[in-house]
Amino acid sequence: MIFIFRRPFFWIILLIAAGFVYAPLHGNNVSLREDLILVAIAIILASNLNLMIGYTGYVNFGHIVFYGLGGYVGLYLTTVRSWNLVLSAVVAGAVVSLCAFLFGLAILRLRGAYFALATIGILQAVQAFVSNFDPWGRSTGMYLSFNSYQSLGGARRALWITYFLIIAVMALSMIVSLAIKNSKFGLGLFAIREDEDAAVVLGVNATMYKAIIYSVSAFLPAVAGALMFFKNGMIDPSIAFEYMLSLEGIVMLMLGGQGSVIGAALGGALYEKLRSYLLTNPVLSNFHLVIAGGLLLIVVLFAPGGLIGWVYRLVPRARKVIE
Amino acid sequence: MSNLLEVRGVSKRFGGLVAVSDVSFSLAEGEIIGLIGPNGAGKTTLFNVVNGVYKADQGSITFAGKDITRDSPDKVVHLGLARTHQIVKPLNDLTLLDNVTVGACFGREYLGMNAARKVASEVLQRVGLGNRAEMTARSLTIAGKKRLEVARALAAKPKLLLLDEVLAGLNPTEVATMIELVRKIRDSGVSVLMIEHLMQAIMSLSDRIVVLNLGRKLAEGQPDEVVHNSDVVEAYLGFPDIVDKLTRSD
Questions:
Q1: Nearest Cα residue in chain B from A193
Q2: How many domains does chain A contain in total?
Q3: CB atoms within 10 A of CB B245
Q4: In percent, how much of chain A has pLDDT > 70?
Q5: Residue B232: pLDDT above 90?
Q6: How many CB atoms sit inside 10 A of residue B29's CB?
Q7: Which residues 69-98 of B have a C-beta within 8 angstroms of A?
Q8: Once rounded to an integer, what is the mean pLDDT over residues B49-63?
Q9: ipTM for the predicted complex
Q10: CATH code for position A184
Q11: Which of B92, B112, B152 sits opposite A202 (nearest CB)?
Q12: The predicted structure's pLDDT at residue A289
């Protein structure tokens, strides 16, 4: 893993994260912090979705299930079990990752559109299960007890701590993407994306690789879900498993440029800014999905490489620095 | 000396169609065997059964003393059995170097990235694609893609190489360079089992020839014996005078 420190992009990621930390701290700007937290969540979701779609060539329509499930496990552990936040989030990530690995072994035998359909099925099934699961409050969900904030030194401090943790998860998402991209494991995934049959004949254990990357792509979104729903203080099935957010993740990825670390992040950030602008605009607020759909069409038709693909075409050398 | 590859009584059916029926043959270390037969004789299916893409319905396959009848293709490569595809399968959006690095990374030696890159550029040089290492596979001509197939298989450092029609669709100059390449591969100690339609090439390269027809083994032997075998002449070559033509032209 030493090789990763030698890549210039690694340091760029750390700079971005530092910017995220510094900007709202400077002048104690809480509203900027709330803006940036949404951007960070978008980057986390898009980056991890990129591992499936951009790296492995498997379209996952139900990626949000990891985020929601992570939120549930996390909130359950912090509230009902009174565990500390970081431990709860990590355990939530591990539990969801393990579930994803088992799901993956089952549904990753499917290819192309059939896999995509199965991912929708998983989202629906998990949502239906959670909506009927008594310990998690069925369809009314769960509320965080205010005491949980006390252990972090009160609500004000707790919110800042959660923010920094989410920024850390964001940086980690990009670093994981970068590390995988430059590893032997990543090369195996790219081979699967290009031609799975050829990859197997060349010696790639495609079944295992796909299950592992599906599971990896679940971990950090689940951690982020645990943190985010801790911050929000409540969770219920309809906000945890918001199907639209799953689709919007795909739009982010296509917009920024699938297969590229910075592309996924950039797409996530830009789309999130656009979305919050549209949602708060009195004229356009009902149209934001129409615009998202239009955007997706335009990108797929005219710039299949997304924003970053366009940059790479203009400046081929950029590939070496911004990956 | 024991045989490197031993195929015993292998059959493969697709529904009612018997693609390969009770085929047996063996290949000694260092040997080049040509596998010929009319279209639809079951040659490629036999390849697919040998390297594990299909599972044999009956029979067994032993490679380097190990039973590989039930093994998946990726396991078979680790043991040292690599192959090329008749219909080329380049990893289009990856560079040639990356394509071949995949072969080296996941091949017999299971190399790490740096070692694999080194092997990959050596192999690309060997097959004559060295100056195009940074191009994407998509941009190659069909002859280039066939060489890339061979390069990827070679990068796995195989003991046995299965070549599926690497000469088909190439022009005479390209055929000549490819034949030269196959010779070099054999000289470097790799055994070869090749499917080929081009008779001159197979006659000059093969130590022995196995003939398939309608999924069954029709004949086996030295190239000269096989082309003069009357069954083969009738089933595969069609008209007896083609044999005369072939033997005269060299």
A1: B91
A2: 1
A3: 11
A4: 99
A5: no
A6: 15
A7: 72-74, 77-78, 83, 85, 89-94, 98
A8: 94
A9: 0.89
A10: 1.10.3470
A11: B152
A12: 81
Q: Count of residues for chain A?
A: 323
* Interface contact B156, partner A, CB < 8 A: yes
User: What predicted TM-score, i.e. pTM, was given to this entire model?
Assistant: 0.91
Q: Does A4 touch chain B (CB under 8 A)?
A: no
If one counts every other C-beta atom within 10 angstroms of the C-beta of residue A112, the result is 11
Pairwise CA distance, residues A162 & A13, whole Å: 20
For residue B91, give the nearest of A184, A198, A205 by CB distance. A198
| In chain A, residues 198-237 whose CB comes closer than 8 Å to chain B | 198-206
In the chain, the amino acid numbered B205 is L
- Name the phi and psi angles at A61, rounded to 5: -85, -10
Which two structure tokens, joined as six digits, stand for B139? 């941009």
A132-154 residue pLDDT tens: 999 998 888 889 877 778 888 88
Tell me whether residues B106 and A204 touch, CB distance under 8 A. yes
Residues B35, A42: Cα–Cα separation, whole Å: 56
Q: Does A194 touch chain B (CB under 8 A)?
A: yes
B198 with B146: CB under 8 angstroms? no
CA atoms of A1 and A13, how far apart (whole Å): 16
From chain A, the residues in CB contact with B77 under 8 A are 201-203
Q: Which of B44, B53, B72, B74 to mutate to test the interface with A (most CBs of A within 10 A)?
A: B74
Residue ranges making up the domain that contains A91: 2-321
* Of B92, B103, B105, Cβ closest to residue A184: B105
Q: What is the pLDDT of residues B147-156, one digit of tens each?
A: 999 999 999 9
Beta-carbon contacts below 8 Å between A and B: 73
